Amino acid sequence: MNGHPVTFSGNGSGYSGYLCESGSGPGVIVIQEWWGLVGHIRSVADRFAGAGFVALAPDFYHGRSTTEPDEAGSMMMALEIDDVAQVIRGAIDTLLTHPSVEGDKVGVVGFCMGGQLSMYAACIDTRVGACVNFYGIHPNVKPDFAQLRAPILGFFAEYDEYASPQMVEQLDQDLSALGKRHSFQTFAETHHAFFNNERPEVYDAESAEACWNTMTSFLHEELRT
After folding, report:
1. pLDDT at residue 1 tops 70
2. Is the pTM of this model over 0.90?
3. Within 13 Å of residue 82, how many CA atoms lie on the same side as its CB?
């Protein structure tokens, strides 16, 4: 695999991220948790490359990251949605013009804050062909699901104070009312961020592996059709 920092542009502004590939395949955008573009997110991009994708993890915090929850929350709330949109569109442009990327659609996969941003991305750009939301939450990001054209795969925790079961149920109802294709799975006895193997206090290896297998199959199927 060949993972490396990358710069790209969106509407004339410059952005950065982490790109990883091991050959040709569909493009996938990996969207960070509220901590920033940290090692865990880069490792997820590496893993996607090993599974036959070309993965790009944009840096939505422009070089900042943290391990402190209060600071992470502040950085998340300081995101400017117009800037987020330009990062997303620039990342899509970068993947779809990359010589190793196959197809004319990309997938978006996000965790925590990134889960909500992945749905937002799928609603603002029709070049998103598949969306994966891991327990997404961001109080200021309101995707316009009427514009959604991609299917959503959602993974959630039974015990989650951020993306609560009630919020998941409401999201399910909202998407169903609009006739949007989606599939949600809630994992028993898990907590928020259970996919993150760098957080042993919440990581659930069995559930994370089940998510990975379901997700990669979903992305290959949706992006190769």
Report:
1. no
2. yes
3. 2
